[in-house]
Amino acid sequence: MSPTQIIVIVVAVLVVVALAVAARSLARRRSLRNRFGPEYDRVVAERNSRADAERELRERERRHSELALTPLAPEARARYAAAWEELQARFIDSPADTVGDADELVTRLIAERGYPTGDFSDQIAHLSVEHARTLTHYRDAHEIHLRNSRGEADTEQLRQAVVHYRALFADLLGEEPVRPRLPEQRRPEEDHAGPHASDGDHPEPRESEEARPGPRAPEAELPDQRRPEPARKATNR
């Protein structure tokens, strides 16, 4: 075999190997994108290179595989769903406390599923392997929770925090946990509307596709705070 033929064969082998490596790398990248969704782009933006980001995501997969995750029993799922509905009903009277309670309830559910709940960034890394599409909601909720603990969050931000918490909560439960919307708060004058008024007279909740659980949480899931109308003056006939 001539030297030229040997060189051609070596070059051909190298080209085949390079193509195989490139195909494998592309397949692994596609797999990471599919699994981590928006979290993939977030980690790439935070790292110095795409290769570093993909190493980080593969390390998350490795650590996740070592967890002893536990599916919820039906009775546990029902218990959490009831707890969330009760929590959501308390929002009108105590929005600030409700956000803290929501953080505790979600953390308790995370722990019962088998995820670590110590450091928040470590917690996010473990959750990202199977729940990456709701992590933005969880991050936003946690940030509002921290602002709330400093007394810096207004009522609308507190409302959004509960909505964001609910996105991950529903994802962890694996089904719709509670009604997508609560009855609206009644006006003060309705409490004295006479014999036609009833404590059970609430408007029917409106269905909305945005209220379904998933990667995008509903924009307005909790009841609006209404201003009481001024009392009418009595007239003498």
Protein model, in words:
This protein has 237 residues and is an all-alpha fold. The chain folds into two domains: 7-65, no CATH class; 74-183, no CATH class. 59% of the residues lie in helices and 0% in strands. It is built from eight helices and no strands. 26% of the residues are buried. Residues 182-220 and 230-237 have low confidence and may be disordered.
Observed structural traits:
237 residues, mainly alpha, 2 domains, 8 helices, 59% helix, 0% strand, elongated, disordered C terminus
Topology (SSEs and partners):
Elements: H1 3-36, H2 38-46, H3 50-65, H4 74-89, H5 95-113, H6 120-131, H7 135-149, H8 155-173
Helix pairs in contact: 1-2, 2-3, 3-6, 4-5, 5-7, 5-8, 7-8
Concise summary:
With 237 residues, the protein is an all-alpha fold. It has eight helices and no strands.
Work out the radius of gyration: 26 Å
Helix-strand pattern, N to C?
HHHHHHHH
Largest sheet: none
Mean pLDDT: 76
Classify the beta-strand content into a percent band: under 5%
Counted up, domains total: 2
Shape: elongated
Tell me how many strands there are.
0
**Low-pLDDT sequence parts:** 182-220, 230-237
Distance between the termini: 121 Å
Instruction: Please give the share of residues in helix.
Output: 55-70%
